[in-house]
Amino acid sequence: MTDDSRVGQVGESWNDTFASRAMNMPPDPVHMETYDEYPSKFSPLFYVVIALAVFTGVCSFSLYRSGNTSGWLILLVMTLLLLLVLRAFPRPVGHRDIAYENGLLIPAIVIETKPLTLLALADMRGQEDVDLVWGCLKLPVKQLPNHTIAIDEKVPCVSMFGMPENGYWSLFLPRPVAWGYSDPTLVKKVTESLTVDDEDDIDEWAVLQELKDAMKKAPNNKVIYFDAALQKTDKP
Questions:
Q1: Could you tell me if 155 and 144 are in contact, meaning their C-beta atoms sit under 8 angstroms apart?
Q2: How many CB atoms lie within 10 A of CB 222?
Q3: Residue 209 neighbours by CB distance under 10 Å
């Protein structure tokens, strides 16, 4: 039986940082592979586009060397367009097992059921001596095991963060705990660990409720920033 006694406690150090609250237990590999929706590798089409870009680039150079002005320009334009297509492909997200075990535990709620969409919240401070800034993100998902699919359903998540800039994390990538662990009791345990008892602590579930209206028209998968008074602010 997996030891869940450290769920919600300080996580292990990784990349010289550590989460103030983490799962502290490895995910279930088969369950994670089944449900985690972040890309773990490039689509096969990505490599097809690379091959086409190389082919058109080589052909363009050959035609240029032979003096075929119109032909090499057309192929050069095609090569540049293919390179732009490559930039648009979603990048694989590595270290999934580390994300579940050592990522920061954060709250999210269901805000739409068709399509199924979560609203996730994270404290974006990368160091202690800067003002509080919240990051809020709408995350469309396909599946949510071990949850009731209903508006305001609490969905605890783990999250890794992007590189810090000016004392704040540049982005965050929420993953529902239920994507990584098959045990349904963990969802309840993590939800409780994110629920504050001390009146001096910030109730992050309540903050999410406050931000629902402000996030209604926000695009999916884009971090929107709010200050301590829950007023929209620019990226720090």
A1: yes
A2: 10
A3: 13
